[in-house]
């Protein structure tokens, strides 16, 4: 083998070695690069898991905070580190986005809270590199208790009508208070009519006789009547006890204000830490006279249905107010002038494990409430009046029904216009009825028989003076102005609206919540 051949073989060997080295280096580089990518991927996955766990930790921490007595509330976010390189940021919002108007559970909207938790994890070597994970939890308040009521509350709610001020009280038929009536002021009974003593005594006495004969109990109040006897005069007590046949029970209750008016309720809360709601002022939104208007609780903006009246408010035709109407000042009178007027309390959601329906008052009136002539109104729920509840003298078409409780400083239940006659007219009608007037006996008997036929009374049965007056004068003796207790089992509740309505349950550290929905990886 010559010298040139040997050099050629050596060159090829060097090339082969270099090739092998190149391949080896490439494989090593690829291996190292793959291992680096795997390590980076592992680090990325680790950050993602850390962010997820941080988000979950945020939800757990939020639920724990909401169940503690010192929860700062829905307006205060929550954030904390879970590890040196991972943390959570939590926000609270009232409501549940899935509950919209028309949803069967829309009324639960204000009692739900949506918790949004964002978990973050950063690279220890480069904090600008972060993984983010978002989770959401929707919870609902478990309503276990409501705020306690003032000491006077049972006294006020045990009577259909409780007149508590040392004021003159006017009771004029045809009005009827069913259930317990308590009157602490001086009673003026039937002062507008009948205007002569014989006609008055006979009229009231026959109301008692009609009740005994099962011809309707149209006396102004039901027996027994709770009354401050020391403030009454003897003639009035005689009319009550003898003529109307009422048992009167002396009461020594104080005439001082039994409750404190809340003043201007600019905001309220449903539960500690919950959202604050601002009740609307009716005069600012609708003016001083309202008509063709329906107001009711709004689960989003005004869940209790609290409405403020900052001045004189006139309620005309076709007005329905469901909730709590609060007149704020001594110049905030309420006049009911229209027909088809309904003012009623709204039901609170039931407490956990209870079937009792609880209501806040229908009306809290700092000044007077006037039921004007020819009005037609229904009032349902507890009503508190710090001045007069005044049913003005009006037409026979006036209709008023209150179902619930009325507690008022002053009570004026006035008469109907058609009944207002001169004393001479009342005296003549009385004498005619008694057979000592100008009517011939045959004509009087004919009137009695006609009255019996109209009332479905058998021949020979007595015709009572109120029934006679109904026939000859067109009076409607069956009261269309009535007050009656709510026998449905509804429980009225007095709430200090400067405090949250719902409170933590007995023995609980704080509020309790039910998890409605948990959403992950948003």
Characterize the structure shown.
This protein is of the alpha/beta class and 522 residues long. It has a domain at 3-145 and 506-520. The chain is built from eight helices and 31 strands. The strands form five sheets. It has a 20-stranded parallel sheet that branches. A five-stranded antiparallel sheet has the order 1-2-3-4-31. The protein has a two-stranded antiparallel sheet with strand order 5-30. β11 (225-227), α4 and β12 (248-250) form a beta-alpha-beta unit. α7 (441-455) packs across α8. The longest helix is centred in the N-terminal third of the chain and has 64 residues, at 3-66. The radius of gyration is 39 Å and the shape is elongated. It starts with a helix and ends with a strand. The model has no long low-confidence stretch (mean pLDDT 91).
List keywords for this structure.
522 residues; alpha/beta; 20-stranded parallel sheet; five-stranded antiparallel sheet; 31 strands; 30% strand; elongated
């Amino acid at each position: 083998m010559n010298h040139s051949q040997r050099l050629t073989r050596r060159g090829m060997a060097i090339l082969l070695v270099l090739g092998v080295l190149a391949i080896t280096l490439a494989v090593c580089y690829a291996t190292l690069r793959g291992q680096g990518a795997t390590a980076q991927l592992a680090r990325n996955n680790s950050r993602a898991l850390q962010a997820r766990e941080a988000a979950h930790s945020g939800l757990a921490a939020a639920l724990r905070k909401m169940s503690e007595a010192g929860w700062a509330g829905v307006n205060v976010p929550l954030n904390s580190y879970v590890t040196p390189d991972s943390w959570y940021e939590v926000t609270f919002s009232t409501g549940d986005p899935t509950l919209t108007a028309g949803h069967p559970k829309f009324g639960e909207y204000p009692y739900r809270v949506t918790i949004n938790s964002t978990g973050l994890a950063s690279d220890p070597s480069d904090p600008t590199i972060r993984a983010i994970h978002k989770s959401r939890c929707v919870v609902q308040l478990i309503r276990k208790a409501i705020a306690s009521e003032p000491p006077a509350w049972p006294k006020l709610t045990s009577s259909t009508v409780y007149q508590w001020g040392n004021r003159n009280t006017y009771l004029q038929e045809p009005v009827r208070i069913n259930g317990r009536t308590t009157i602490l002021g001086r009673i003026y009974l039937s002062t507008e009519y009948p205007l002569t003593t014989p006609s008055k005594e006979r009229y009231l006495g026959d109301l008692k006789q009609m009740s005994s004969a099962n011809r309707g109990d149209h006396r102004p109040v039901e027996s027994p009547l709770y009354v401050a006897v020391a403030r009454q005069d003897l003639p009035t007590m005689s009319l009550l006890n003898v003529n109307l046949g009422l048992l009167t029970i002396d009461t020594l209750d104080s005439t001082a204000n039994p409750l404190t008016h809340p003043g201007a309720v600019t905001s309220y809360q449903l539960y500690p830490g919950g959202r604050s709601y601002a009740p609307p002022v009716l005069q600012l939104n609708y003016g001083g006279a309202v008509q063709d208007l329906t107001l009711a609780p709004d689960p989003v903006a005004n869940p209790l249905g609290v409405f403020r009246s900052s001045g004189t408010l006139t309620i005309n035709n076709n007005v329905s107010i469901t909730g709590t109407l609060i007149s704020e000042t001594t110049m905030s009178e309420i006049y009911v002038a229209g027909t088809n007027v309904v003012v009623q309390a709204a039901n609170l959601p039931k407490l956990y494990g209870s079937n009792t329906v609880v209501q806040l008052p229908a009306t809290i009136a700092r000044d007077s409430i006037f039921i004007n002539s020819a009005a037609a109104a229904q009032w349902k729920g507890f009503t508190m009046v710090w001045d007069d509840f005044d049913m003005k003298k009006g037409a026979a078409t006036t209709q008023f029904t209150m179902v619930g409780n009325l507690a008022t400083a002053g009570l004026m239940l006035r008469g109907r216009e058609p009944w207002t006659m001169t004393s001479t007219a009342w005296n003549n009608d009385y004498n005619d009825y008694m057979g000592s007037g100008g009517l011939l006996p045959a004509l009087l008997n004919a009137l009695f028989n006609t009255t019996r036929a109209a009332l479905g009374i058998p021949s020979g049965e007595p015709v009572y003076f109120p029934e006679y007056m109904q026939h000859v004068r067109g009076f409607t003796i069956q009261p269309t102005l009535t007050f009656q207790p709510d026998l449905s089992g509804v429980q009225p509740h007095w709430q200090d609206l400067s405090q949250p309505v719902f409170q933590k349950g007995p023995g609980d550290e704080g509020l309790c919540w039910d998890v409605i929905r948990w959403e992950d990886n948003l």
